[in-house]
Amino acid sequence: MRNILLILSVFFAFGCGNEPTPANNAAVKPAPTAAKPPPFSKLPVYTYEVVNTYSHDPTAFTQGLIFYGGMLYESTGNYGRSTLRKTDLKTGKVILKRDLGEDFFGEGITIFKGKIYQLTWREDVVFVYDLATMEPVKEFRYSGEAWGLANNDTHLILSDGTHLLRFIDPETFKVVRTVPVSYDDNKPLYLLNELEWVNGEVWANIWHSEQKQTGPTPQGMVPNIGQPNHIARIDPETGKVVGWIDLSGISPDDQPKKDDPYDPRAENTLNGIAYDAENDRVFVTGKQWRKLFEIKIKPKE
């Protein structure tokens, strides 16, 4: 009897009061977490810090931007609204302006040896002006679309909405060489738009980089990177993209709501890079933005 009671007492001790719980038996599995999407590119990505904010004409459909001699020079687009203008940086006041007329759509500009070169989109005309007076001094003919323009102190550099950069003789406007632009494993980078020469690199806005394109572009090209407001930093010798500048979120009030094609700001894309080489300052704006930003580029953490 004593043995039976001993056995029962042992059974109840283990079977009732001291039964192991699942937590003591095995580790509880953590809840699954969503996998991070792969990076869109293997290249370095830089971010920005806003140093100063200036007024910008919200009717200016910015297609080209230059900082020179303490002033901003800007080319604006749209038929019937295209202009070339000289603007005071601090106040945003237009000091001098030329209208292109009803038949021209203004595009990129650059300043080279005392002259302003201004592209037109599909009109096959390049206007050349005297820098001091902005009076026309010459015209060139050019076949095909023209989007962005910069220079490297020797050649003009032109984008046409494809993945190509064309280096051009400023005296004849003839193409000297053509460089295809690519990133990562030779992926072509299309829709190169406004250009700027910055410390030996070509910096390029990407048209509608704020939208994720899911089909062919108006030019019939494959979808692009679809990264919000990214600027490409390009090696002018090889055409390789050496890094990206992520400007997403820089001016949300100036840009359309995400994936809303009916937003009246649908074309308010980031477009306009100006570099003050003497003071190492970078300025950016967009089409019909109310603000222009001086930014400092820094590595993304």
What features would you describe in this structure?
The chain is mainly β and 301 residues long. Mean pLDDT is 86; it is low at 1-26. It has helices at 2-17, 22-25; strands spanning 45-55, 62-68, 71-76, 83-88, 94-99, 106-112, 115-120, 125-130, 136-141, 148-151, 156-159, 164-168, 175-180, 182-183, 187-188, 192-198, 201-206, 230-234, 241-246, 270-276, 281-286, 291-299. A hairpin with a 4-residue loop joins strand 10 and strand 11 (156-159).
Summed up, what is this model?
The protein is mainly beta. 7% of the residues lie in helices and 43% in strands.
Name some characteristics of this structure:
301 residues; mainly beta; Neuraminidase; 22 strands; 7% helix; 43% strand; globular; disordered N terminus
Number of strands: 22
CATH architecture annotation: 6 Propeller
**Strands across the major sheet, in which order?**
16-17-18-19-1-22-21-20
CATH class: Mainly Beta
Oligomeric form: single chain
Order of helices and strands: HHEEEEEEEEEEEEEEEEEEEEEE
Tally the structural domains.
Answer: 1
| First-to-last CA distance | 75 Å
